[in-house]
């Protein structure tokens, strides 16, 4: 079913955290603008996370003269200092105004052509939250074997603590009804965001719907920044948020 089958002219907010991505963010933005969303309007929310490689200045120019794209609104927000992907996302979610919010990294690892397939379960009311899984189909790229194994391990550990049955908890493509993501109190500033949001949604009894997506992994030389320290932090966050009990209602 096409994403607009049940309702047209809804808006998708694409939240893009950007940190030192001068070689990719513009190309990424063009790809986001080129996707056929079958009637959805678009809002792009770009959050510069204190870039020091020239990206910040480029984004200032975009803020002053955004491209005139039909049905697309632009918001550019700047962090004074680098604060991390999680912090950039919190800023982006607060600025989002669409019906649905998707997270889009500013590199070219994920393909915006997957948006219609990610939006479909939300458009039909089947789901409030959708994750794009890189590992649900074998044809998708896997990147470094160490990253692949770390992702599988972290997803398995996360499932054990939340009761979910995800195949890719660490995926960038997380899509939410805006009210849902704006109602989650988030505190992790860096990559701890992924296990934190997954655990907090699961604890609320929100089922996360997964759809397969494609993945074109980049190398460290091409700018990939995530490392083993982020993996250790993810384990800590899975245990911290996953093992935390649901808040009990106060006693009479
Ligand atoms: N690594 C990193 N990425 C950040 C930060 N703030 C925002 N981002 C953005 O968050 C996204 C994810 O980062 P990335 O390095 O691509 O992660 P990776 O591809 O998994 O290594 C990218 O769009 C970054 O530009 C930060 O402090 N560190
Ligand atoms: Mg990336």
Structure in words:
This protein has 252 residues and is of the alpha/beta class. The chain is built from eight helices and seven strands, in the order βαβαβαβαβαβααβα. It has a seven-stranded mixed β-sheet, sandwiched between helices. It has helices at 25-34, 55-64, 85-95, 115-123, 145-162, 178-182, 193-203, 228-242, and strands at 11-18, 41-48, 72-78, 100-103, 129-133, 174-177, 208-212. The chain has a single domain (11-242), classed as Spore Coat Polysaccharide Biosynthesis Protein SpsA, Chain A, CATH 3.90.550. Residues 1-6 have low confidence and may be disordered. It is 35% helix and 16% strand. The structure holds guanosine-5'-diphosphate and magnesium ion. Magnesium ion is lined by residues 105, 107, 109.
Contiguous uncertain segments of 5+ residues: 1-6
How many E-type strands?
Answer: 7
What is the CATH class name? Answer: Alpha Beta
Distance between the termini: 48 Å
Largest sheet: 7 strands, mixed
Question: Based on helices, strands and strand pairing, what is the structural class?
Answer: alpha/beta
| Major sheet strand order | 3-2-1-4-6-5-7
Number of domains: 1
- CATH-defined fold name: Spore Coat Polysaccharide Biosynthesis Protein SpsA, Chain A
- CATH architecture tag: Alpha-Beta Complex
